[in-house]
Fold this protein.
Amino acid sequence: MKIRIVPFARIREIVGAATLERVIPDGASAAALFEVLAREFPPLAELARSTRFVRGGAFVAADAELRDGDELGLLPPFGGG
């Protein structure tokens, strides 16, 4: 299945693109997709535990199952003031 990935902030800097597309196995989770990206972009590994996932405008758990055509936002940790 094909997933569109929208990285934000530090993650966007690491991958060097505003969007990515990847084909992953049916039933793969958001975390599994992130692992694929971390193998391709090793600096992402240090953000694995703190990255949040957004699908369809809502936060989802790392174990959320993805569906063909989903758009997954990747949000690194951020602070506010």
Q: What stands out?
A: The mean pLDDT is 95. The first helix runs from residue 9 to 15. The domain at 2-75 is CATH 3.10.20.30 (Ubiquitin-like (UB roll)).
